[in-house]
Amino acid sequence: MPTGACGINCDVCKLRLLEICSTCGSGKSPDAHKKLDAQKRIFGGTCIILECACMNHLEYCMRDCDAFPCDNFSLGPYPFSQGFLDMQKRRRKQRPPALSHNTTPVSVPPEYWEILQEKDIPALCNLALAEPHPPGGLRFRFLQEDILLDIGASCLKRLKKGKWEKSDDPLLELVTLVYLTHVKSFHPLGRDIVGTRDLREAHFFQGPHELKTRPLLERYGNDLDGFRKAAEHLGGKAIDMADAAYLLFPFPRVPLYYLFWEGNEEFRPRMSVLFDRSIEESFAADAIWGLVSRVSTALLTGPDETLSISA
């Protein structure tokens, strides 16, 4: 593949067309090792960016490396300007856009907050394994992170430097409110694990409403260890299914099972998401889609504390 590990697309470079320069290839490609050997032979040294990508078994720094942009880029003369690197640093701290299943921005109906204000909070906490947070809220775990639901202020809050601050995370806010306003009982988990085709509203998860797993396949399709690292960072528990599979808990009583089959020369990588049957008691199909979308985003972005928090 002509794109180099650094992110430069050699496909659109005339030097490649004129055969003056060859592609470096990804950090996992044979081209990369050929390029490093040629650089040693001709220049007596190698590109530190390409060498680092090969050493760390990364295909592309911009997509696969959590440290990008690192000193290898900022201290070197190329391939990117400091302005571009500063933009990357800034925008990687932004929260990805919250989009619904029909690609419109997520909005949270105020009625959900009104319904929640009428709930028996201690009883609700018992059902959802949350904790009351006086004077008018509750605290729960989303994956590995503590979240405060401030019912009086009608907002989510996250801990930042020891203080609870309002957080702009509309998709998480929406699926949390859907769950807490609909949960009525709890069920034994793990007895009936199902896929989307087994759900009552199976027809919903077709075409444009397929679960959001394609970005995960683009990122981890050839990086099984990267997928494991991301899942374990979010508190995922490895289970003996597929090439790699993890049990994740976006809410303490709501498990999701991510199953990943690595690609090879014959087959493309695949990913499936499974559920406990009880998810249908609290989530309609569009809310299940939203929950999977939010968890998939967490698998791509890593810890939420690296993202901007809006007050």
Task: Tell the overall outline.
Answer: elongated
Strand order of the largest sheet: 1-2-3-4-5
User: If helices are DSSP runs of H or I spanning 4 or more residues, what is the number of helices?
Assistant: 12
How many domains is the backbone divided into? 2
Beta-strand portion reads 15-25%
What's the β-strand tally? 10
Contiguous runs where pLDDT drops below 50 for at least 5 residues = 303-311
Structural description of this entry:
The chain is α+β, with helices and mostly antiparallel strands and 311 residues long. The chain folds into 2 domains: 10-91, no CATH class; 110-306, no CATH class. Helices cover 34% and strands 17% of the residues. The strands form 2 sheets. Strands 1-2-3-4-5 form a 5-stranded antiparallel beta sheet, with helices on one face. Strands 6-10-9-8-7 form a 5-stranded antiparallel beta sheet. Helix 7 (110-117) crosses helix 9. The longest helix is centred in the last third of the chain and has 17 residues, at 285-301. It is elongated.
